[in-house]
Amino acid sequence: MKKHVFHVPDMSCGHCVKRISSALEEEGLTDFEIRLETKTVTIETDAPQKILEALEEAGYPATLQN
Asked: Domain HMA, which positions (predicted)?
């Protein structure tokens, strides 16, 4: 698996972090880092498109930074 960093420009508060965390956990993911100060989510995955879709469904469209 490769580490990917996703930029989530609409993430602005603790509530956003909780919603994003819940969306990722619903996808069966538990090992990820959410950084509000940089508006990023870092996660090791072989399916970055699946993460982008989960974030979009949660209301937080993201872009892959790497």
From this structure: 2-63
